[in-house]
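thought: fold this chain, then report.
action: predict
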Amino acid sequence: MRNIITAIVLLFAMSLSQAQVRKWTLLECVQYAMEHNLTVEQFELDLENAKIDKSDALGNMLPDLNGSTSVSSNTGFSINPTNNLPTNSTAFNVNAGISSNITLFDGLRNMRQLNRAKLNAIANQYRLDNLKDDIRLNVANAYLQVLSNKEQLKTFKAQYAVTEQDLKRTKELVESGVVPKGDLLEIEATAASQEQQIVNGESMVLISRVNLAQLLQITDYENFDIAEEEFDVPPSDILSNSPKVIFDKAVSFRSDIKFSESSVDLAEEDLKIAKGAYYPSLTAFFQYGSRYSDVTQIPDGNGGVYTPNFTDQLWIFDGISYGAQLSVPIFNGWRTKNSVKRSEISLQKAKLQLEQDKLDLETTVQQAYVDVGTFEKAYEAALKTLEARRLAYEYAKERYNVGLMNAFDFSQAQARVDNAEAEVIRTKYDYIFRLKILEFYFGLPISLN
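observation:
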């Protein structure tokens, strides 16, 4: 009974351990990176700040409302607040009021500030989208690198399995005296070399998995792995479009270009705000106030005086004031003039940066277009080379089995096949990634299907 319980516990522990290793697809990796990348979170906070700036700009266009009150007690010489005459007594005073101010005109700067806040929120959204685009490409590249290394490792293991069969066959030939023992040593050396390839391949898989996990900011490297999938080169007609067509499409939607365009819009709005300081400003104000003092004395109508209570005094001594104030700028040490000049320079820089970003994008698209064609040819050449190497290997194997080829030449034929298979895997994933980059600039989502 104890053995049965122990076996059940061990099986449960093994199944739990295996369940912890999650196999991630490319889509899951991209989505996780979007949700957990620290830079993305920082940019999202910047976007929230931009939205708050918009609320501030809107609030600046509304009238303010402030309340105030003061309580004081004076002993000795003071001014009686009811008649403004000097007195020498102890007095308890209360003053209260509300006030409101509104800007009627300030060279349209408040309106410009609101427009700028809206544009800044849009610009921050484009900046965030551009960062996410970069993350998608980086994750896809790292994901494909893991796939490439895994396929190479499978190839190394398959090659080693073939070598083990050759080793077994060679031992039989040596024992029967068909081939010399030196051929067996040569095959054993090839097997040892392939074992080292497997070790190196496992290290490359581990390193690429760690790199992908770090890109996703996952620290549990041991339980992180990608889905066991193999991908062929996906069909695509992207090369049927010219680089000019792809560039024009990219300019119309790319977030980095939209961000640069919004920076120009922001600079134009800043210039308008700076020029608004040349205009006079007009503000309106309204104030209501009242007071109380325990030394207040007013006629009672019968030749005497009396001190009204707190509530009565608030009604008796309340008052309203309102009006408007016009401020005309005449001279402020050239601050407004210099501010306008700086804004004009910033606008020119933003326009130049937009043109530079377009040139950079055009260069990137042209390079991506050339890369697709180059890596497609490299992949096709690698496939042809592999086919030729395999045929040569089969021919060499036949000759080796009948003793017409020594072990060294046979191992060289096998090594050429190994190298050709590794080159096919490398060029295949290089081609897939370049193809996806070009499709990405054409507005197609990143997908390996």
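thought: worth noting. Residues 1-19 have pLDDT under 50 and may be disordered.
final: tokens above.
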